UniProtKB/TrEMBL annotation:
Record region (Disordered): 1-42, 96-123
Domain FHA: 53-105
Protein name (database record): FHA domain-containing protein
CDD domains for this protein: FHA
Organism for this UniProt entry: Arthrobacter wenxiniae
InterPro entries linked to this entry: FHA_dom, SMAD_FHA_dom_sf
Gene3D superfamilies, alphabetized: 2.60.200.20
Keywords: Phosphoprotein
Ranges annotated as biased composition (Low complexity): 99-112
Residue ranges of coiled coil: none
Amino acid sequence: MTAGGGPDSFTAAGPVGAEADDLGETRVRPAAAGARPSLAFDDGTTEVARSVVVIGRNPAGYDGEMIEYLVPIRDSNRSVSGTHLQVRAAGEDLCVTDSNSTNGSTGTNAAGQKSELQGRTPSLADVGAAVHVGDRSFRVDRA
């Protein structure tokens, strides 16, 4: 987790220290009208992430868990757990959380840096990032 208790990120970190001071004031990036995060799977299918999505071979939520929809993905090698990963969208942001899956999940940011996702710890996935669940993967896009 980051110091503020927010999600870990597998995106490249921005400048820090004296270099960050040279950037001046904080600027707000305008959101593209109607742009929602989408998941472009390695089999060519695409899912728009509207709020909470659970991905797996046979995904299911826990009792009382608020889930918008379930995304079953085929995996003949059984490298993907039944309930493998949770994806949470809030506006333009997308957080992915491994559900303590057997084979784990990894994220690769747009710069090609790969990192393992820690179970039950949200990680920020920026546009262009890839998320690997077992032998399957999806890329984060905008709908």
